[in-house]
Design goal:
The structure is a single chain. This protein has 416 residues and is an alpha/beta fold. The chain has 13 helices and 13 strands. The strands form three sheets. The chain has a seven-stranded mixed β-sheet with strand order 2-8-7-6-5-3-4, with helices on both faces. A four-stranded antiparallel β-sheet has the order 9-10-13-12. Strands 1-11 form a two-stranded parallel sheet. Helix 3 runs parallel beside helix 10, helix 4 packs across helix 9 and helix 11 packs parallel to helix 13.
Length: 416
């Protein structure tokens, strides 16, 4: 499966003398952000756009977390902290890993960054050289591939078939590994598909990694609290402790605690890796926000009962969206196990025409049609390495979701 095509940036001097770096030659601002900007433009024009593109919970940050941040400000906790996380936060993260994941990390095996995204970026910058490869099960979060490229390495896609629940097959992983493979990056539950791995589904993947000691694992657990139908989240290293010395377990407070804007992510891994990542961070952002760190301590150590309530709300929304999409001719939607996305096939719509005679030639064209003519913003699957699909986020109210399903159904009925 080919990496999604992007418009190359021409690297040359402008009239002002500006010349962009060669590493940006095939990298642009995320398509998700572009779609969000287009939706906001239409909203400013007075259009009733429903945005189902953002990976952001619509719930508010819990009050006890906001209170902790306010207390930190009043107490003068507004100075620099240790560059990769205050000791108090690292202790809270270590306890979280023990309590929820059965993992034992010392504070020198923990790093904190400005979001889980920075943690992954730091790992790549600290470990990748030109010619190295990172295996990305596709569909994948769109930023993964570009973060690999910025680190001068090569993303190696492995297609995850819908009939396998969009999960990585062990045989496919085995075939993808070369002497240049440095990392496997696996997100469970997944953005964009919502696919999650049980112990049984993780085990063959981990067995492959055990046979290839030069391949390290990034386990992106950011959606761990959003699993449904009684499923339990499984953390890779807890299942296979022998891989601990070459695994980075990544998480954060953004999704479960509705703290996307606070920008706190963290990871646990071998101390040599964590130290190298600290070098990278020391020359970029240095420490994350001191106030946000105080809030993250409250999130990780405070009441957790609301997580179950929000998970139940997301499951109801998932069921509403899956049922609605599967009732539309031309769309097929698998029921995901976790996160707050569905990844629906629109293959049955390709080739149909809009009322003005414009052909729907791709998932991107379908998304453009939905936004411009029916005021619903969704993201094409081609952004995530698998077309023709669309990703819908159900991190919005049930009222919005019901209206969006009506609009999408009407849009598809108008196609001929």
């Amino acid at each position: 499966m080919a990496i999604p095509a992007v418009r190359p940036v021409i690297v040359r001097a402008s009239r002002t003398g500006f010349r962009s770096a060669q590493r940006l030659a095939h990298i642009e601002v995320s398509e998700i952000l572009k779609i969000g900007a287009a939706a906001q433009r239409l909203k400013r024009e007075g259009r009733p756009v429903i945005v189902l593109g953002a990976g952001e919970p619509d719930f508010d940050t819990p009050d006890h977390v906001k209170d902790a941040a306010e207390r930190a400000i009043r107490a003068g906790q507004t100075k620099y902290t240790v560059l990769d996380g205050a000791p108090e936060l690292k202790v809270a993260i270590a306890e979280k890993f023990r309590r929820e994941n059965g993992l034992d990390y010392g504070t020198d095996e923990i790093t904190v960054g400005a979001g889980a995204k920075q943690v992954i970026h730091n790992a790549f910058m600290a470990t990748l050289n030109p010619g190295d490869e990172v295996i990305l099960p596709a569909p994948y979060w769109t930023s993964y591939a570009d973060m690999v490229r910025i680190a001068d390495a090569t993303p190696a896609e492995v297609a995850c078939r819908e009939e396998n629940g969009f999960r990585l097959g062990a045989d496919d992983l085995e075939r993808a590994i070369t002497r240049r493979t440095r990392w496997l990056l696996l997100n469970s539950p997944s953005n964009p598909t919502g696919a999650a791995y049980s112990e049984t589904q993780w085990r063959p993947i981990l067995n492959v990694l055990k046979r290839h000691p030069h391949v390290w694992l990034i386990a992106d657990d950011i959606y761990e609290h959003l699993v449904y139908d009684g499923m339990s989240h499984v953390t890779a290293v807890a299942l296979e402790p022998s891989l601990k010395d070459r695994t980075l377990t990544v998480n954060g407070v953004s999704k479960a605690y509705a703290m996307t804007g606070w920008r706190i992510g963290y990871g646990g891994g071998p101390r040599e890796l964590i130290a190298a990542m600290a070098v990278v961070q020391s020359q970029s952002t240095t420490n994350p926000s001191s106030v946000s760190q105080a809030a993250a301590i409250a999130a990780l150590t405070g009441p957790q009962d609301f997580l179950m309530e929000r998970r139940a709300a997301f499951q109801r929304r998932r069921d509403l969206v899956v049922q609605g999409l599967n009732g539309i001719d031309g769309i097929r939607c698998r029921q995901p196990e976790g996160a707050f996305y569905v990844f629906a096939s629109c293959a049955g719509l390709i080739g149909r025409r809009t009322p003005t005679g414009v052909a729907i030639g791709s998932d991107s064209a379908f998304c453009h049609y939905l936004l411009e003519h029916h005021d619903v913003a969704v993201v094409p699957g081609s952004c995530f390495g698998l077309a023709p699909h669309v990703r819908l986020s159900y991190a919005t109210s049930e009222q919005n979701l019901r209206e969006a399903m009506k609009r999408i159904a009407n849009a598809c009925r108008e196609l001929s």
